[in-house]
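Example: Large ribosomal subunit protein uL6.
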Amino acid sequence: MSRIGKLPVEIPSGVEVNLNGRDLAIRGPKGQLALTLVRDVKASKEAEGIVIKPSDESKRARAMWGMTRALVANMVAGVSQGFSKTLELEGVGYRAQMQGSNLKLALGYSHDVVYEPPQGIQLATPKPTEITVTGADKQQVGQVAAEIRRFRAPEPYKGKGVRYAGEYIRRKEGKKK
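Written out as structure tokens, the predicted fold is:
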């Protein structure tokens, strides 16, 4: 039995859910998201919210049950509140600034890195050394943050690079004489 899968997904006010066979579409104030359910689970819209159940007692159906419920819950949370990740830049001369909707990064290379965000993702730079990634799709927000971090991952000797806010970088000791 999936402890997560058993819980119904509550639908807050202002969120509209459309369930048509295997296609689930959720619309809210922050945007709209869609998901095609796998054959191993069934979804139904009831008074307490969206209920996900396995179609049979196979191992795959039980595995998909909790995962699908978590995906639907993330979709509902995304269209109602949205998701956000913050990145920090550490290093001399490392800067970020917005250029229209694109992000321009100075990361110690001979050229500036320009990143164009995908549809549905908003980037902001409240400070020159801070980047905020926001959007309705949790997976897409995390993917965009990971792509930006990959331009200059933090190195273990001085800690220079792009890191998630609050991320701990394990430091190494330098050379000894």
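The domain at 3-80 is CATH 3.90.930.12 (Outer Surface Protein A; domain 3).
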